[in-house]
Amino acid sequence: MKRVDDFRLQFGRHELVPIMIGGMGVDISTAALALEVARLGGVGHISDAMVPTVADRRFKTHYVRDKLKRYKHNVANSDKSEVKFDLGELAEAQRLHVGRTMEAKRGPGLVFVNCMEKLTMNAPRETLQVRLKAALDAGVEGITLSAGLHLGSFALIEDHPRFRDAKLGIIVSSLRALQLFLRKTARLQRLPDYVVVEGPLAGGHLGFGMDWAQYDLATITAEIQAWLKKEELNIPLIAAGGIFTGGDAVGFLENGAAAVQVSTRFTITEECGLPADVKQEYFKAGEEDIVVNTLSPTGYPMRMLKHCPAIGSGIRPNCEAFGYLLEGGNCAYITAYYKALEANPDTKTLSVEDKTCLCTHMRNFDCWTCGHYTYRLKDTTRRLADGNYQLLTAEHVFRDYQFSNGQQIALPD
Ligand SMILES: Cc1cc2nc3c(=O)[nH]c(=O)nc-3n(C[C@H](O)[C@H](O)[C@H](O)COP(=O)(O)O)c2cc1C
């Protein structure tokens, strides 16, 4: 019986353990987690979601406070058109977050950054371009473009000196999305270095509609693989979403995937950015607690624990401080908030049912997004005398994927 360790992911001169840890915003996949994975010989991701906010937390900068100060006069206004990010500050925050992480990197693996296109930041093109260029400036080894079609993203950095040397990949959930991307970027003569095929059991936002349950990762991966072969395109495929054991991973590697991208198993590791009490919520979750809903203002369905504080919360939009999902001065949460306020003008505790203020709740770790198999996390550890579950190290989980046989899961000592 084969183990993950019998396979290798070849990226140019790098020979890697074929395990990639997915980017989990906002700072759930921390620099510490990505660095540990790189030390172990895999590929770790940080995420640049809400990067000024993350930089403030990591480096005691004041990007959020300063932005709020600039736009405080607009807080009660539902029109957020004037609330913009300072592109110089955004670049600085990104260079800090990425640069400091790269400086600390040790070992044979790689550190990539996950960039969500759907963080439109009231100036989608400009802000994404700044984030991508600053990440390349700061020495990131690869960029994974996620959440959004990214049809113009490669062109935003085509004049950057590292455009052809850094690894660039995209996340897709269908062959059609990949075909569109390749058609749109053909003139650049630059294929993605890898394609993450993300199925419907992943955490975070899903690249499917609410009919997600009708799709399955193995089928989509096989379809994309067959098409690439027909077109004689040699792009490594990385399967993601619901790969819970080493045996699951081997199944994909034997069928031609170059690597797997995994995340859920790492949400309860010491290095993960979620607060300790939230990690216990992930452990405790039953299958019935995990839902896919349409609360995200991005328009993509999102998977989360159904009792997380973000659901039903009616806080005032915080766009002057955050505003990462603004587009044309609006966000679907603003619309939902003012609609709820109009319907309940006298209420003291407003509840907004249609959407959630994702910026605020991700920032506060109150939106507990998770993968479908989160309910199996309790089976990967031991129960302590106080009733809590024992946290694992990233090394333990990584090595379990790498060396376990079949569906076995190694419990901690
Ligand atoms: C808590 C959590 C947050 C996530 N956030 C993001 C994100 O910000 N961007 C992204 O591209 N994918 C995100 N994902 C998806 C993962 O990167 C990954 O592709 C997927 O969850 C892998 O499946 P698994 O969790 O079943 O292992 C997130 C996943 C989890 C569990």
UniProtKB/TrEMBL annotation:
GO terms (BP aspect): 'de novo' pyrimidine nucleobase biosynthetic process
Assigned keywords, A-Z: Dioxygenase, Flavoprotein, FMN, Oxidoreductase
GO molecular function: dioxygenase activity; nitronate monooxygenase activity; oxidoreductase activity, acting on the CH-CH group of donors
Superkingdom to which the source organism belongs: Bacteria
Keyword Isomerase part of the UniProt annotation: no
InterPro entries in the record: Aldolase_TIM (IPR013785), Dihydroorotate_DH_CS (IPR001295), NMO (IPR004136)
Transmembrane segments: none
Protein name in UniProt: 2-nitropropane dioxygenase NPD
Organism: Sterolibacterium denitrificans
